[in-house]
Amino acid sequence: MIRRATPEDAQTLRRVEAAALPPGWTKDQIQGTLDEARSLVLIAEEQDEPQGYVSFRSVLDEAELLRLGVVPNSRRRGIASALLGTAATQLAESGVRDLFLEVRADNFPALAFYASLGWKATGSRPNYYPGGVDAVLMRCPARALTSSTL
Ligand SMILES: CC(C)(COP(=O)(O)OP(=O)(O)OC[C@H]1O[C@@H](n2cnc3c(N)ncnc32)[C@H](O)[C@@H]1OP(=O)(O)O)[C@@H](O)C(=O)NCCC(=O)NCCS
């Protein structure tokens, strides 16, 4: 089941962050995203257990993907695809045309995942991440993802 997160979901998101994502987001950043009117945060759950989440921030007809993670034991089951498909459908309905993201150039699973859904690399930011790792910039029309479901 995929549902929209509420401001009360900070603890749930922190659990997914700890299990699925590299350290990065603080408690305040998570709460700030949940409280932000321009944010769309979706949680994937099975038997009330969180399996993954995605967050976007939209400005006019563009939205930036902020975080996406699926817990290790539930990967390669289409959960991230479904989260993106559901988010893209809701964003497109609210007038968003294009989706953007930044991903570490050494995150090969994520690069393969985004490429499999049709995201295209549009450029890079050299030395963007700690350790001198580049960021790859990617773009995808929201409508291109709206058919992905669980
Ligand atoms: C990247 C991530 C979100 C993918 O989640 P997922 O639920 O496993 O993805 P899906 O099952 O929807 O994968 C869809 C397709 O993407 C591709 N893909 C996904 N993970 C892949 C991997 N590790 N290697 C190669 N291709 C991969 C495949 O084509 C896959 O289809 P298939 O399983 O039928 O071959 C997950 O690996 C993750 O949480 N990683 C850690 C956090 C992270 O890097 N987030 C992104 C930061 S920008």
Structure overview:
It is a single chain. The chain has 150 residues and is an alpha+beta fold. The chain is built from four helices and seven strands; from the N terminus they run βααβββαβαββ. The chain has a single domain, classed as 3-Layer(aba) Sandwich (Aminopeptidase). Helices cover 30% and strands 38% of the residues. It has a seven-stranded mixed sheet with strand order 1-2-3-4-5-7-6, sandwiched between helices. A hairpin with a 3-residue loop joins strand 6 (120-129) and strand 7 (133-141). The protein is globular, with a radius of gyration of 14 Å. The structure holds coenzyme A. The site of coenzyme A has 19 residues, from strand 4, helix 3 and helix 4. Residues 20-21, 68-70, 75-81, 103, 107, 109-110, 112-113, 116 line the site of coenzyme A.
